[in-house]
Design goal:
526 residues; mainly alpha; 0% strand; L-glutamate transmembrane transporter activity
């Protein structure tokens, strides 16, 4: 384990200009116990672009806009977004500080191991964090690409006449086939050299940014009937058909749209072994992706909501889009002005491309996590998954990520409830993985943590505790029932899924891993 003196010498070398940036990054990685194997070709912009594309406000808001409308409507979305955003910034700041100290592809699980290194149960902390992180990431990829398949289903429906005009409604088997094709293409793209991924990442970030501006201006502009400012900023919808009447409860459940969207920003940490000046650019990538997403996301919510008039009709399964709220907003806005909804379908195409890039970047982040976790021997067949090809790409980990994400979508063929329970790990499971190293930072490592160039100074512990408490809050919140009366079909299975994952991880530790997993291991020779 590197001491404070080693980091001080490295910082001095950098300041004096005695080492090139790549040499500095390589030396620091070696101090953390790893020989560089991945090509370090990403700039700050490229690192940010991958993460911004994963957060992708067009993906999360579009997918769950109906949830926001049903649970509180405009008030929940317009005010809930900045509330969730503010706490997400706090979580991001706490993560960024740790990322600066430990810039490795392992990210969260490596942080937990180092922060608990003075306690004998450090390997268990690493094991627990790592499995919540990687399963959460797989669930994110599954959720994103399945959402894209569902959106393509709606686009096909509207393009062939709509729900009320004899349009074609794809079956659940066709949706899975579309999902599989999307994952296949993502795996192929992620098999390319990192320079190509850098290009796609930048293009994806630009597409997300421009797409938001186009939609937030075009949709309300073409709508023949626009909502008033009073409706957008004061209307609170309680007509959710969920048997829930408490305004506070409804508002809190409506936060799911915002919190689901503001997720996946650990990608900047997982890309640090391929990023130049990683201990600075990795943390900045995390914070900038969150901050810019909050701003453009709020604009997107406002723009779309100004085109909303009749909430029940948007949520009705009998509308042209089959109940897909935001698709109905786009389609109806253009149809009411031009007599045709083609313009709305084009707008959905803009969103579909953004979701596609989100899934692509998610596979990128997944594969780096799988590469690092297997490098430390934590996964079955670890020697297979951490192999890199001639382009210094963890090729086997890429295809593993795509395959597991496909398998996680298969329960949708039998039970949508089972599928929703599985992908709920995407939000809660991943946030638990975010909170664990932060908790260790403000407790066990409070006195011996050595910060990197990006640090919060005297506010570090306060920010860390606020971050942990927020994650505890949303974990409880999103485990509560979302419909009454509670039956087998209406039960919120999130705590079952997350609890089941915890039991599996704990059991595997007690039965086997505690005998051989010692946490991150060096691959340095000599």
């Amino acid at each position: 384990m590197a001491g404070q003196g080693s980091y001080s010498r490295l910082a001095a070398d950098e300041a004096a200009g005695t080492s090139a940036a790549d040499d500095y990054d390589s030396k620091k990685l070696r101090l953390l116990g790893y020989e560089p194997q991945l090509k370090r070709n990403l700039s700050l912009l490229s690192n940010f672009s991958v993460t911004f594309s994963i957060v992708s406000v067009l993906t999360g808001i579009t997918t769950l806009y109906g949830t926001g409308l049903g649970f509180g409507g405009p008030v929940t979305m317009v005010y809930g977004w900045p509330i969730a955003g503010a706490f997400t910034v706090v979580v991001g700041l706490a993560m960024a500080e740790i990322c600066s100290a430990y810039p490795t592809s392992g990210g969260l699980y490596f942080w937990s191991a180092r922060l608990c290194s003075q306690r004998r149960w450090g390997p268990f902390a690493s094991w627990l964090t790592g499995w919540f992180n990687i399963v959460g990431q797989w669930a994110v990829t599954t959720s994103v690409d399945y959402s894209l398949a569902q959106l393509i289903k709606v686009i096909i429906l509207l393009s062939t006449g709509g729900n009320n005009g004899g349009g074609y409604l794809a079956s659940k088997y066709e949706v899975i086939a579309i999902h599989a094709a999307i994952l296949l293409s993502h795996a192929l793209i992620n098999s390319l050299p990192i320079a190509w991924l850098s290009f796609f990442g930048r293009f994806a970030a630009a597409w997300n940014m421009l797409g938001v501006f186009v939609l937030m201006i075009a949709v309300p502009a073409v709508a023949t009937e626009r909502a008033s400012a009073k409706f957008v900023f004061t209307n609170f919808n309680t007509d959710n058909n969920a048997g829930i009447h408490s305004h506070v409860y409804i508002f809190l459940l409506g936060l799911l749209m915002s919190q689901y969207t503001l997720l996946g920003y650990d990608a900047s940490a997982h890309m640090t072994e391929e990023t130049k000046n990683a201990d600075k650019n990795g943390p900045i990538g995390i914070i900038s992706a969150i901050g810019i997403s909050i701003v453009v996301g709020w604009g997107y919510i406002l723009g779309v909501t100004f085109a909303v008039k009749d909430i029940p009709s948007l949520l009705s399964p009998d509308n042209d889009a089959g109940g897909y709220a935001i698709a109905q907003v786009f389609y109806q806005a253009f149809k009411s002005r031009y007599g045709s909804g083609v313009g709305g379908i084009v707008c959905l195409g803009i969103v579909a491309v953004a979701i596609y890039f989100c899934g692509m970047s998610s596979v990128t982040s997944n594969s780096r996590m799988a590469y690092a976790f297997s490098r430390d021997g934590a996964m079955p067949l670890s020697s297979v998954w951490h192999k890199v090809n001639e382009h210094e790409v963890p090729i086997n980990a890429v295809w593993l990520s795509a395959f597991v994400s496909l398998c996680m979508a298969l329960p949708s063929l039998g039970s949508l409830v089972a599928f929703q329970a599985m992908v709920s790990i995407a939000t809660i499971g991943l946030y638990i993985a975010y909170a664990l190293p932060i908790f260790f930072r403000v407790t066990l490592a409070r006195k011996h943590f050595v910060p990197g160039p990006f640090n919060l100074g005297r506010y570090s512990v306060l920010v860390g505790w606020v971050a942990v408490l927020w994650v505890v809050t949303i974990t409880v919140l999103f485990s509560l029932p979302v419909m009454y009366p509670v039956t087998r079909d209406t039960l919120n299975y999130t705590p079952v899924a997350v609890g089941g994952l915890f039991i599996l991880v704990l059991t595997s530790w007690v039965v086997s891993a505690r005998h051989w997993f010692k946490g991150p291991v060096t691959n340095l020779s000599g």
